[in-house]
């Protein structure tokens, strides 16, 4: 889509027939999509995974910027009214550039450090941010922490392997417990009050983490805040789909796409959404 064409398209198409675009390197953004399906039941969505290049978290910023731009071009083959970059890594690298290029609303994600620091303001506990190596290396992350953390109470831990486990839909308890125990072995967990899941793939493992972490530790991720912001932006721009009329049963529909055009992966995305939605219903 060329800059400036957005308003004309919105005028031409009925707002309700336009989709909300979701983008991630792989399956991670499904944890955010699941929240959007619950909070915005009248909307239709298109979800794009960059299967040609997942994972992003271990690549260079230049590589990721190119991959994100190319993937967004592919999403634009669908008519979208807004784009959610359901990926902390892609947001930190590409959101600013994309906003310069496109007129439609672009909602990005960043690790939920601010609410985590707020939660521990009075109890003296620390915050542990789990994210990809690339997110944690970005100057934007350092700037976010120094903006919200005036007591130096935030630590971070990159978990690149967790993205791979997720891409394989590997939920093997023993393997995952060993993995987390090994990664967390050098941390004294008693001094932490909140663990931030700063990569959208990680909430698939909330339940396992919940079991492993001491019960006083709260787990947070950015999906609720992101969907709240999406709803607010759509509402401000009069882009929310109208409520379904009484008697109609249509629910938000998701079209899954991936950059490798791989049918098996499309099936995997549908399966991942089912697994996550079920998991959320049971545990949270
Ligand atoms: N899901 C992504 C994030 O939120 C990226 C994971 C990856 O591709 O390494 O950071």
From TrEMBL:
EC number, UniProt record: 5.1.1.3
Pathway per the UniProt entry: Cell wall biogenesis; peptidoglycan biosynthesis
First-level EC class: isomerase
Pfam families xrefs: Asp_Glu_race
KW Cell wall biogenesis/degradation (keyword) present: yes
List of catalytic residues: 87, 199
Transmembrane domains' residue ranges: none
Superkingdom of source: Bacteria
Protein name: Glutamate racemase
Protein species of origin: Paenibacillus ottowii
């Amino acid at each position: 889509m060329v800059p400036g064409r957005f308003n004309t398209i919105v005028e031409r198409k009925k707002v309700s027939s336009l989709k909300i675009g979701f983008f991630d390197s792989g399956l991670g953004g499904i944890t955010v999509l699941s929240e959007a399906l619950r909070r915005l039941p009248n909307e239709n969505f298109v979800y794009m995974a960059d299967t040609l290049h997942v994972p992003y978290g271990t690549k260079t910023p230049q590589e990721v910027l190119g991959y994100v731009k190319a993937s967004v071009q592919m999403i634009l083959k669908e008519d979208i009214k807004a784009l959610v970059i359901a990926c902390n890594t892609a947001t930190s690298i590409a959101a600013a550039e994309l906003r310069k290029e496109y007129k439609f609303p672009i909602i990005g994600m960043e690790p939920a450090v601010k609410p985590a620091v707020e939660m521990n303001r009075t109890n003296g506990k620390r915050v542990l941010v789990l994210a990809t190596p690339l997110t944690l290396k970005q100057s934007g992350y350092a700037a976010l922490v120094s903006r919200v953390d005036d007591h130096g109470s935030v630590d971070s831990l990159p978990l690149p392997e967790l993205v791979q486990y997720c891409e394989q839909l590997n939920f093997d308890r023993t393997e995952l417990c060993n993995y987390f125990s090994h990664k967390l072995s050098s941390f004294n967990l008693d001094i932490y009050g909140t663990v931030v899941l700063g990569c959208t793939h990680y909430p698939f493992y909330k339940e396992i983490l919940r079991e492993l972490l001491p019960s006083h530790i709260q787990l947070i991720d950015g999906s609720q805040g992101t969907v709240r912001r999406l709803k607010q932006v759509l509402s401000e721009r009069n882009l929310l789909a109208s409520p379904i009329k009484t008697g109609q049963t249509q629910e938000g529909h998701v079209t899954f796409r991936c950059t490798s055009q791989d049918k098996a992966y499309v099936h995997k995305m549908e399966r991942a959404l089912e697994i996550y939605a079920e998991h959320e219903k049971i545990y949270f």
